[in-house]
Q: What sequence folds into this?
């Protein structure tokens, strides 16, 4: 059975980019190749989530299969993608 | 050295942005004393012992941002609002640049080699055989290091087949190329400012964030807010630091309120021309090698520690100095702000009266965030003709300076590069008095990876390099890093 590919959008708006988002763009370096093979990853314009005053919504943001996640680190991105692939 | 973006540097950037937001909203003095609570809410899962310690460290970070010399002027009774008032009336770049936050210092144990439980007490005993000081003894069938005899050469670590030897460094001390950082009698970090060359390596390597650089960001913010004419002189390393082209970054700076943006690569062209001419003269006179003079930490290193190299340095001024001269001639009434990846530039700039302030790319990033300027979406500034100096943007990268000199030289100049200065490199450079390198030009960069990896950068050089080569930021992750030559 063909597994559905997961669309991953890393915010590269300036606020996300300078607060850790740029490091996420090194995904080829730190993600498991198996995960890489199942995901379509690209940078995207500001996703808007950082504009709220809610302390939970901190840059950098990543959208995975249509769901927005704040405060994403390299480790967190790897976890989130693993969850998305296993789901 | 730690990664460029870690919990601490990201926190620093966030604090900078919050302070600036409040400053531009005219509420800074009212909210600054509660900012630590806002930034570290009670629910936070703390990285230090508790949220209260984290808040105290945020307070110190804000003081460093305001340019306070925490070593000397830390007054716990004084509200931050009063520090803000004082900071805003200051006119010059604060020196010394680096300051220590003793309450943040973990007081790491002295550097040591230690043998762990993984020691199998083997028959061959390579640790014992290789120790030059007989510091290894065996008790109960296990190796042990006699502290008094150990000279920390690390030979035992290299030869143990079970990786049973560990090296525990003091990160700040280990990173300092000149031994200016040490622990005081109480066991906390102290910087010997007479010996310090302001390379910033200690601040980059302390995992507790106990060494901070005193910033001029608030002064630059004030210039922008008061709309005085101010020129941004951007270092060649800026390309690749933000998610857009160089022309977009320039447009972003204008949107921040800078009257004009000038590339320091223009001054780098003058530096390279001067060095090409000078190296040719030296070659004709068989005067031996010459070193570059654009790295300010290297200049301080020679002034303070390696006098034998004083006359070896090129007499060319730094790209920043030439650019400042040019800007000052064209706009004598404007204030000049240098924006770069470097801490030592803050010291150099104090010697050039026309330069008002120096801020880093990381601090510029906080300005962009605070003013909600998105480099990715901004319309690019119209490009002027840069063909004369475009190649000098390479000054930011290892070998970039020597290549720019080579391109301006009609002689076959032999070059050599010092890519990053540490204790070992300093020993090597000291030996040049007796054994000079057999080349014509030595390019020296104190940071390994060049200015692109300086203490004030925002972006991992791997990503920055791809962006400098013209990669689209949305697709940059998929592009493999090509060849070794980057200009």
A:
């Amino acid at each position: 059975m063909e597994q559905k590919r997961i669309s991953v959008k890393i915010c590269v708006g300036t606020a996300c980019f300078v607060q850790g988002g740029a490091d996420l763009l090194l995904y080829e370096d730190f993600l498991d190749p198996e995960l890489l093979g199942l995901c379509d990853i690209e940078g995207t314009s500001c996703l808007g989530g950082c504009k709220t005053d809610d302390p939970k919504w901190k840059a950098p943001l990543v959208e995975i299969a249509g769901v927005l996640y704040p405060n994403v680190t390299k480790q967190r991105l790897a976890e989130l993608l693993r969850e998305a692939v296993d789901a | 050295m730690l990664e460029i973006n870690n919990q601490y540097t990201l926190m620093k950037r966030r604090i900078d942005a919050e302070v600036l937001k409040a400053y531009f909203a005219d509420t800074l003095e009212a909210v600054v004393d509660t900012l630590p609570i806002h930034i570290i809410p009670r629910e936070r899962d703390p990285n230090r012992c508790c949220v209260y310690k984290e808040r105290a460290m945020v307070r110190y970070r804000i003081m460093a941002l305001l340019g306070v010399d925490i070593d000397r002027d830390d007054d716990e009774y004084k509200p931050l609002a009063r520090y803000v008032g004082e900071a805003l009336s200051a006119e010059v770049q604060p020196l010394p640049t680096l300051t220590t936050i003793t309450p943040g210092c973990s007081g790491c144990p002295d550097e040591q080699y230690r043998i762990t439980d993984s020691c199998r007490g083997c028959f061959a005993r390579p640790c014992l055989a290789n120790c030059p000081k007989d510091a290894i003894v065996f008790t109960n069938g296990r190796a042990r290091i006699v502290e008094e005899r150990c000279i920390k050469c690390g030979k035992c670590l290299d030869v143990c087949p079970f990786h049973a030897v560990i090296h525990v460094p003091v990160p700040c001390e280990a990173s300092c190329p000149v031994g200016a950082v040490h622990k005081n009698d109480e066991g906390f970090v102290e910087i010997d400012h007479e010996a310090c060359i302001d390379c910033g390596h200690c601040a980059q390597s302390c995992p507790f964030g106990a060494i901070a650089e005193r910033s001029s960001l608030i002064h630059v913010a004030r210039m922008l807010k008061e709309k005085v004419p101010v020129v941004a002189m951007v270092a060649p390393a800026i390309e690749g630091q933000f998610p857009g082209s160089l022309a977009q970054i320039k447009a972003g700076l204008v949107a921040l309120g800078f009257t004009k943006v000038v590339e320091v690569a223009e001054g780098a062209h003058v530096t390279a021309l001067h060095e090409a001419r000078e190296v040719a003269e030296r070659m004709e006179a068989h005067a031996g090698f010459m070193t570059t003079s654009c790295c300010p930490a290297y200049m301080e290193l020679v002034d303070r520690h390696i006098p034998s190299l004083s006359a070896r340095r090129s007499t060319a001024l730094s790209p920043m100095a030439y650019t400042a001269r040019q800007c000052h001639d064209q706009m004598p009434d404007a204030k000049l702000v240098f924006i770069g990846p470097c801490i030592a530039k803050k010291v150099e700039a104090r010697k050039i009266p026309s330069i008002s302030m120096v801020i880093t790319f990381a601090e510029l990033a906080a300005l962009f965030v605070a003013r909600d300027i998105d480099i990715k979406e901004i319309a690019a500034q119209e490009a002027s003709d840069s063909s004369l100096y475009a190649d000098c943007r390479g000054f930011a990268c290892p070998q970039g300076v020597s290549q720019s000199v080579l391109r301006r030289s009609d002689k076959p100049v032999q070059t050599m590069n010092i890519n990053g200065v540490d204790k070992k490199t300093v020993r090597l450079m000291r030996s040049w008095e007796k054994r000079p390198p057999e080349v014509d030009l030595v390019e020296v960069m104190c940071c390994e990876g060049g200015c692109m990896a300086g203490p004030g950068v925002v972006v991992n050089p791997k990503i920055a390099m791809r962006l400098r080569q013209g990669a689209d930021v949305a697709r940059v992750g998929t592009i493999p890093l090509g060849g070794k030559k980057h200009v």
Q: What stands out?
A: Strands of chain A lie at 6-11, 39-44, 62-64, 67-69.
